[in-house]
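Can't attach files on this board, so I'm pasting raw text. These are the components:
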Amino acid sequence: MAFELAKLPYAYSALEPHIDARTMEIHHTKHHQAYITNLNNAIAGTDAEKLSIEEICKNISKYPVAVRNNGGGHYNHSLFWSILSGSPSSPSEKLLQAINTDLGGMEKLKEEFNKAAATRFGSGWAWLCVQDGKLKICSTPNQDNPLMDIAECKATPILGLDVWEHAYYLHYQNRRPDYCAAFWNIINWTEVSRRYESAL
Ligand code: MN3
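---
Top answer:
Structure tokens for the assembled complex are below.
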């Protein structure tokens, strides 16, 4: 079974003004689609065709670099679309408690996360993850992610922010920090809370 591009659960314009419709449409139909096409080509005729994208990521050191780049790209963007929403939501009680206990509160989470996003040199991702039952913030280069066995911060990601220029350049140009700040207005906390429960 080849991997396929899933439809977004909201309109391309749903995240405006924080992420514009044109950026969302290009990001989803061109960038994410390209990762999927290239991943399918890279695993064609191999046993990886029978695996989930999570299983591939967890054993990424066994695969060629094309699988790492495009498999990571597919996993990361699938997670990213799922944790965005144009409708307001709040973290579950349990997640909020963990944010307070493990990270020192919501303001501290935003500060540390935005710092990880802003200081990731070049292209990559910032993450909120669960590691040994605790919340942790980290970042990865390119299309790597914390699920990968080669990751510096091995963990289960529950929230991720794409800081490749293609994710924000049309609207924000070089202002990555403004894009990172706007991100907090469009988080689907219901989905992040669900991922937190499932990671524990
Ligand atoms: Mn992207």
